[in-house]
Each structure stands twice: as structure tokens, then as C-alpha cells.
Design goal:
This protein is an alpha/beta fold. About 40% of the residues lie in helices and about 20% in strands.
Length: about 375
């Protein structure tokens, strides 16, 4: 099949959705499909057309951007005139999927949508109003014109069904079990940052508000002074987080690593004793990084919020912490760090769960079956 993946942002922009789309594209190519990426030209320096590892990327300029959502009508025109067997869009942000749905409706192409998480705008009054308007207009159009909707967890499937009464299938996110595995050598990372004789708590991801990083940093004041915190990633929230570190006078315990290449990420996961995902919002749909930690055989602490908590069985692969509660995060970290046998068992259970449920080979096959089904139904 000739498949189009539509994502609001794509590499070099880094995030959970972008990582998912790139990995899915690679697996579909391995399975014999031709895949193209349709995305926005979110930076002028980026090429409009680019050949990457076995696929091409089409980047379309946005008319404008609202609440970090690029508005790109030309996506619709491109889909109308292109010979795709199926178009698969990913939200949020939402508007790229809307224009993809519009193009598919006019050209009668099968349209699949992955609903990664709810739309949230972090302004108390304007945000909910804008979301309500979107849901009643662009969101309603996108979902009602989807031949199949994929949700990554039952929580978001329930949301989709209750709000739009849609025909939704649950297919989880996935992880590369070969790249992320317990045998990855952590010595170089430990040595580079002087971590040979300390406990290491790791966070990987963008430094943005909804990740709840201020609570992870504040949790350090309740923790053992022999514990170091590695913050891998970058983003607009970094300046504020560094201010919090200075205010708490814990500069010697919090290490901001910045961006790390995909190639090097497994070494950072391998270097930690416990991985923490302290998200505070439903924008954290699934927590792909938690899967990567589990695949590396590490125990995890995640926020007790919809979506994320479904991946981790409390007390088995890790622990749930109350969101926005630094003390509870610290307590959960201590439980794991103070019991090496428990930590080892949780790590083993996490690896086992990933191999049984979240391997890319399994997930790509399920998504391929969705494509085949919608293409078949469209021809009737």
C-alpha cells in the first residue's frame, strides 16, 4: 500500500507523537509498504521536500499558528491530488488532521485517525471555551469523517466514544525492544557525569509545563543526598526549572543534560536506577518514555493520571504517584531505591510486559490490519 502519515510536527521536532510516527513509518516500510510523511514546515530552515530513511517528508507552510497548533490548509490540496491508498493522521495538535480529513472526504480516500490524547490549552478561561468550539466544529468534522479511530489506551477510547460516539479500536504505543534492552552498557554515561557511586533518577522528555517537572525537582529536597537527578531533554520551561533548582539550593543534585540523540538515549535509560514521569495533564497520553525505561529493565514511577497509569500496574512494574505532589513522588522513589530486590523485580516485570504487549512488530501488524480493513470497506 501507499500510505500517508499526517503529523502536525515531525523530525527534527522531538516528542512522543513524532517518535511514534517515525517508528511506525519504519516498520511499515519493513513490511513492504510505501510511506510518505505529511507535516508542517514549523521552521523556515526546514526543506519543503526531504528524503529520509526509505521515505519522503512533505512539509507545508502554515498560514498561522494558534496555541501551538499550525493551520495548514495546503495539506488538504496535496491529499486530494495524491495517489494514497490510505491516509493516517495523528492528533493533537488537531488542525493538520482536520485538513487531512477534508482532503480524504473530497477524494474518497480511506482516513484513519490516531487519537493520542485530549486537547488541552493551559489558560483557565479561554482554553476550555476554545476547546468546546473546536470539539463542536473542526473536531466533530475530523472524527465523523474518520473510517477508523485508534486510541492508545482504554481511557482515551472511552473519551472518544463518550464525546463523539465513534467506532474506536485500542492499539497501544510501542517500543523498539532491540534498541532498549537491559544489556545496554551504562558505564560511559555514569562516568561522564560522575555518577559511579550514587543513585540515579531519570526523566526524559520535553521541558514543558504539562510534564510536571517542577514537582520532580522539588521532590529532591525530600530525598537522599546521595541521589542525583538527570533531566534529559529541552524546552521553554527550562529557565523556570533552573530557577527552582537555584531557589532550593540543589544545583549539585539536578543535572540538566539537554537534548540527546535517539542513538544515545538507551545509554541514559540504562544508567538510571529509577525512571520518573511526573506528568500533570491529560496531554500525557501514554508515556512512551516509560515503555522505553521498562524495555531497559528499569522500575518506573508515573503520575496517577488517565492513560499513563494504564501502562504501569501498581506495585508490579513500578508505582503510581499523586500528580503535583512532590512529597509523594519522593516517597515512591525512596521505596524503590531502598529495596534493590523490589527494583530488580519491577525491572524484570517491566521488560516482560513490554515484550508481551508493546513490541513494534505486534503493534505495526495491528495497525496494518486496520488499514486493510478500511481500504476493503471503502471499495464496497
Amino acid at each position: 500500500m501507499r500510505i500517508a502519515q499526517v503529523a502536525p510536527y515531525f523530525y527534527p521536532h522531538i516528542g512522543g507523537v513524532e517518535s511514534h510516527v517515525m517508528s511506525l513509518t519504519q516498520r511499515l516500510i519493513e513490511r513492504g509498504h510505501e510511506v510518505e510523511i505529511i507535516t508542517t514546515q514549523h521552521e523556515k530552515r526546514l526543506q519543503r521536500y526531504e528524503k529520509m530513511d526509505g521515505y519522503v517528508v512533505h512539509r507545508f507552510p502554515s498560514v498561522f499558528s494558534l496555541f501551538s497548533t499550525p493551520v495548514t490548509p495546503s495539506i488538504s490540496e496535496h491529499i486530494k491530488k495524491s495517489e494514497y491508498d490510505v491516509v493516517h493522521a495523528h492528533v493533537p495538535p488537531p488542525m493538520s488532521a482536520y485538513f487531512a480529513a477534508k482532503g480524504c472526504k473530497v477524494s474518497k480516500k480511506p482516513f484513519v485517525l490516531t487519537y493520542h490524547c485530549d486537547l488541552e490549552i493551559p489558560t483557565p478561561i479561554l482554553g476550555p471555551a476554545v476547546i468546546d468550539i473546536y470539539n463542536a466544529t473542526f473536531g466533530k468534522y475530523t472524527l465523523s469523517n474518520s473510517d477508523r479511530i485508534i486510541a492508545t489506551t482504554e481511557t482515551y477510547a472511552a473519551t472518544s466514544r463518550s464525546v463523539w460516539n465513534t467506532n474506536t479500536v485500542v492499539i497501544p504505543n510501542a517500543v523498539d525492544c532491540k534498541r532498549f534492552n537491559p544489556s545496554v552498557d551504562a558505564k560511559n554515561v555514569r562516568k561522564r557525569f560522575g555518577l559511579e557511586n550514587v543513585n540515579v533518577v531519570l526523566y526524559v522528555g520535553r521541558l514543558v509545563h504539562h510534564k510536571g517537572l517542577e514537582f520532580l525537582i522539588e521532590s529532591a529536597k525530600y530525598g537522599d543526598k546521595n541521589t542525583k537527578y538527570l533531566i534529559v531533554g529541552d524546552g521553554p520551561y527550562r529557565v523556570k526549572l533552573e530557577e527552582i533548582v537555584r531557589r532550593l539550593k540543589i544545583q549539585n543534585r539536578i543535572l540538566f543534560i539537554g537534548k540527546v540523540s535517539n542513538k544515545d538515549l538507551p545509554y541514559y535509560f540504562s544508567a538510571c536506577d529509577v525512571f520518573v514521569l511526573p506528568s500533570v495533564s491529560r496531554l500525557e497520553a501514554f508515556g512512551l518514555v516509560a515503555l522505553e525505561a521498562m524495555a531497559t529493565g528499569k522500575p518506573v514511577v508515573v503520575s496517577n493520571i488517565p492513560g499513563v497509569r494504564e501502562v504501569i500496574t501498581e506495585g508490579v512494574e513500578g508505582l503510581h504517584a499523586e500528580p503535583m505532589n512532590a512529597k509523594d513522588i519522593a516517597d515512591k522513589i525512596k521505596i524503590i531505591l531502598n529495596d534493590k530486590n523490589l527494583a530488580k523485580k519491577m525491572g524484570s516485570e517491566g521488560r516482560k510486559k513490554v515484550e508481551e504487549k508493546f513490541r513494534w512488530e505486534m503493534v505495526a501488524e495491528k495497525i496494518e490490519e486496520v488499514y486493510e480493513d478500511v481500504v476493503r470497506n471503502k471499495k464496497r
